[in-house]
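Section: Multi-chain targets

For targets with more than one molecule, the full set of components is provided together so that the structure can be written out for the assembly as a whole rather than chain by chain. Components appear in the order listed by the source. The example entry contains two components.
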Amino acid sequence: MSALPVAEAPGHGRALVIRNLVKEYRKGQPVLRDISLSVSEPGIVAIIGPSGTGKSTLIRCINRLVDPTSGSIMLGGTDLANLQGEPLRAARRRLGMVFQEYNLVERLTVIENVLCGRLGYVPVWRAWTRRFPEEDIARAFALLESVGLGDFATRRADQLSGGQRQRVGIARAVMQEPDLILADEPTSSLDPKTSVEIMELLAKVGRERNIPVLVNIHNVALARRYALRMIGMSKGLVIYDGPPAGLQDSHLAEIYGGEGWME
Amino acid sequence: MSAPPLSAGGSLRARAFPPNWPLRLGAVLFVAYVIYAAGIVDIRWERFVQGLGNGARFLGRMFPPNLAHDKLQLLAQGMLESLQIAIIATGAGVLLALPIGLCAARNLMPLPVTILARGLIALCRTFHPVIVAILFVKAVGFGALAGILALIVATIGFIAKLIAEAIEEMSMKPIEALRAAGSPFLSVVTMGVVPQVLPRFIGFAAYQLDSNLRNSALVGLVGGGGIGATLFTAFQRFDYDFVLTIIIAIILAVMAGEILSAFMRRVYQDEAPSGEVKQGASGPVWHRFTAAERGMRLAFWAVAALALGWSVQTIEVIPEFLYDAPAQTVDLFARMWPIDWAYFLKTVQQALIETLHTATLGTVLAILMATPVALMCARNISSSVWVNTLGRFILVATRSVHTLVWALLFVAVFGPGALAGVMAVAVHSIGFTGKFLAEAIEEAKPGPIEALRAAGAPWRSVLIKGFWPQVKPAFLAVSLFRWDINVRESAVLGLVGAGGLGVALQAAMDNLYWDQVGLVLVVIFAVVVVTEIVTATLRAKVI
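Its structure, encoded as tokens over all components, is:
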């Protein structure tokens, strides 16, 4: 696979600083209790933890698919936690998101799905008439080439396999030229081999574009292999935050509870 | 990296979105046709503006609705008769539809029987209830009896078809088991078929009662009794404030009917009977239903029987008319023969084309108006309860008032002709089209929508790129289905002066040229059959 095209060097303002983030879906039952962390280094940051511990909620609070109850989410000097309307849209353009179920528009072609990453930038009439700027289309083709789907551009998305769809999902996120990529369990619906390929691709995106990639992941071994940093969550709190090497069995026991499963 | 060529201007876009020439050509032709047809039926801006002026004056004369005591009494009489018509037609129609539907089921009956039954069902379905009502008015005279007979025909067409389909879709395994045990045919039906089909059957019957209530307002317009007769008289006397009272009453009755039928479906469809085992004198006794379930069912059947009995007892029908109805009907058809084919080129051809224009333009206009209403109704797009409710109210109100009644209103506003017909078809279709569109939008998968919002797309782009591709197949299917219905509706609009085949039919009947009436009926039959074939083919192709 060839290098991902870099449109402009992001570097400024990509530090994500979360302070005292709390989210309650029901009053008095916080899913996120008090999360504080900052991410600025490029590469994969893996978030691990048991189901229902708020990993997805954390990721979704960052790009405001979920509204936080309190706390701040600073990205390059703006607090995302309180944005609304136009400024929120502008902020979301800087955050690429990759979903567990890929979330492609299945009846559109692959190339148009990738171009959907530009919807935050192009005016509505251009999206409607499919008159995306020429350089966007060129970049979409180049991106598809680089994720190994160059020949699939005009296929409909529902004709692709799971792994191929997730590559399209990643290309769509990169198409936004984001300062940060959020990936919500990107490998949970894929087989082990494809999971490795997808993590490889996400790591490459982070490396080449020099941006952090925040990944929710269930597979601890896979996380260890690609992450430069790991965040362990349990019951809405951060239990561990450091390099993969420092993550001990005792930490895992605390994060997931019990030890029998580690045999 | 094998980079695509960046130089050539349009080529890259063409590579990303290769143009679909047949589709574009089709779209251009369709738009050209719509413009041409709009010219033919004389849809012009001036007429529209003029119509708006008339409409304002018209509305002014409608408000406030007339609530005088004598008028309310007339209204109550009419509504009561409509209710009786609906109940009797539903009861008798359903009873007749049961054996016919059973005979039409291909998994139970020998082929010749099903062909005969299916032919009968198709005949009942082809003609609009209004046309059937006209024929019955000629055969048995003005009044409720003609309306009842017309609606019985419509009920048979609808219910028998659905029963046949339900029987064909049921599981054959219990049937085989019963047959293997040596059960006689009737036992197979009562123990194997009925339990599987009953819940759906109750649903159809409830829907049909609802639909007959709506249609009983319709058959009255052509002399079939009930509230329709009251409405038509009010129109002819220019009592527009009373017209409004009647229309409001119809809308309320239809709404009440919908709530009632939804309730009936819930009672019967919700879940299987839980049953109970009680300690009897000689050991445990099993009951299929719990006491509450039995009470509910007993009450339901009792109410149904009482309603039917009351309606038959109190409706004003001269029984003598019923006795010679068969002879009269045969005589009517005898007079239609031989058919006056020459009338086709003279008048009917023109009227036929106008009918097709009316149906198509009305459907296009309906889709344009229904789309924003559907967006208002879809809860995953408009989160405001007020907007949802307003949208739903528009859907129910437009749907409750029948096309023919809308046509009466629009003839008063725009004058006689196809323009009034187009508007009537369009406005009535809003309810149906909008309802199905809203449901399709609500069924759209939320994942892709979320992804586009996460990319910072403005809401209109989310609509175009996230919702539209998902809704498109349903949108096309609903449009085609509605067009099919609208062709039938457009064929009768002329009876109230809104253009098309109905005008030719009315003229022939006024002149007592029964051979010409026969021709129009044959043409309508042919058009309906052809339309159904066309939509079936298109649907298979598009979806």
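Residues 69-104 of chain B form the longest helix (36 residues).
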